[in-house]
Amino acid sequence: MEHHEQDNYSAHAERDFGAPTGRDVSEALCEQVRQANEARTPLRIVGGDTKAFYGRSVEGEALSLTEHRGITHYDPVELVVSVRTGTPLAELKAALDAEGQQLGCEPPHFGQAATVGGMIATGLSGPRRPWAGSVRDFVLGSRVINHEGKHLRFGGEVMKNVAGYDLSRLMAGAQGTLGVITEVSLKVLPKATETRSLRLEMTLDDALERLAQWGRQPLPLTAAAYHDGALHLRLEGGRSSVAATAERLGGETLEGTFWTELREHRLAFFVSSDSRPLWRLSLPNNTPPLAIDGDTLYDWAGAQRWVRSDASAETLRDAAARAGGHATCFTPGVTEPFAPLAPVVAKYHRQLKAQLDPNGIFNPGRLYPEF
């Protein structure tokens, strides 16, 4: 395992960066974990609960991080922020906005109560992801409560390679099944000088062909989605670059709120009365349309596809797998929302879970019945 140490990070933060904002309740959280581990009581780790639908339901004693909040360190010059995981995403966004900066992964909130911990646990990224990176790519370090109730620190506030597992990044997308993330250090990005969104009417085939061509060119694209017979684009960068690219590509002006509505699943495609299950297909770049019955919204220049379909889970997952990707169900209550793991991958999952959570107290069954 990666080197780790029990530290006095809060004191270090106060000495170097001034008193952190918010509240530190890590001691109470550690004690609850210690007691749960001794009694082998399952814990359901809770933040804002805006993404509770994502994954399998968990039965257990609630361990809430909503009171463990606040920014502990923010250095706009170094583009680094450290924040407790119970901090609302909206609060972190406001602090970054004030310095002309942003979270590069553009994570969805799915509700006003969304927290930093939920962002890390689910690992979900927004429209900018293919051009900027995923949630995991921006994680520099973290503090984690392990199954023994010890408060450990992994990584740091600079990128560095370490031997063994990079636990901080493993936490991204693990849905709280490996430990309790209490604090995370993130790389942030400066906001672009200019932003412009366009809508170009065209066929799906033309849109995918053009996106493939543009992907090989140094264009200031930071979002691309196809729906309702039109290609939607976002350009970000310097004023002259954005203006020149917009003139070259043509199309109509698109309201910038489109990307927020897409990210938060507030477009009609997501909120209509359509009762068909909602699936997310993650596919390699330049994958052609798949032979799936249903309606599809293409995001990430086609690499992420939202599908409304009555097709079986097996049909959808087979189609995605043949294309080199995978399919996840976003409709609550599904028994198996995530694609089954290959035997070799499942073996490593079991080994990792056994090492980090031998008594199975952290969000048991959230990802798969056996994890």
Oligomeric state, counting identical vs distinct chains: single chain
Q: Estimate percent helicity.
A: 25-40%
Number of domains: 2
What is the annotated CATH architecture of the largest domain?
Answer: 2-Layer Sandwich
Shape: globular
Instruction: Characterize the largest beta sheet: strand count, sense, and whether it forms a barrel.
Output: 6 strands, antiparallel
> Which topology of the largest domain does CATH recognise?
Uridine Diphospho-n-acetylenolpyruvylglucosamine Reductase, domain 3
Number of helices: 12
Query: Which range does the strand content fall in?
Result: 15-25%
| CATH classification, class level of the largest domain | Alpha Beta
Mean pLDDT: 92
Rg over CA atoms, rounded to whole Å, is 21 Å
Distance between the termini: 19 Å
Structure in a nutshell:
By secondary structure, this protein is an alpha+beta fold.
Descriptive keywords:
single chain, 371 residues, alpha+beta, 2 domains, six-stranded antiparallel beta sheet, four-stranded antiparallel beta sheet, 18 strands, 28% helix, 24% strand, oxidoreductase
